[in-house]
Amino acid sequence: MKRSHINAVIRKMEKLVDELRFQLPPFLKWTPEEWREKGHDYDEIRDNMLGWDVTDYGMGNYAEMGIALITLRNGNAKNAKYPKTYAEKLIMIEEGQVAPMHFHWKKMEDIINRGGGNVIFHLHNATKDGKLDSTDVEINQDGRKYLAPAGVDIILKPGDSLTLRPYQYHEFIGQPGTGTVLLGEVSMCNDDNADNRFLDQFARFPTIEEDEPPYRLLCTEYPLAK
Q: Which residues, including other chains, have CB under 8 Å from residue 60's CB and lie 6 or more apart?
């Protein structure tokens, strides 16, 4: 992705979050210059990849396949220095955008439509060799448990939520004609380097073409503490 596009996406997400009256913590507003002055007292942000995250999954077509995320809090199962057992994210997905089919090896998560348009989920069970299973899927949605055919549309309107379990394949799409969606994610600890299993080969983070200075640093870009 071009840096100019990433900057524009971040500005759009800031505007959406503001319109929906969600207040962001101060570190999400720091400039790259401010980040260079931050010491080891902010290592939790660096070590647990809190902050901005914009991805096109390495496909180069963000409008069709991509999402923007903010990790607000996160523990770290690999580092006893960070004992939190939970994480929280915000996700922006635009009309027609797809977050491709994947599951998590360890993470269980609740996805909540916090406002804006609707989002469509497709769920499948995973076979032992990581393929899509055609069997019915157990759905856990706002306190209701039921079985549904694999891949059926599950539409989350603002206020609706869905629980996703480990080894449960899922993709989601911003429903066309309903507007940009702000999702919340409440989950076990998040590890985007090791806990994602995509059905097809995708990169979790984008390759960036530097055509202008960064507006905000992404969670993979923080300078080392002085």
A: 1
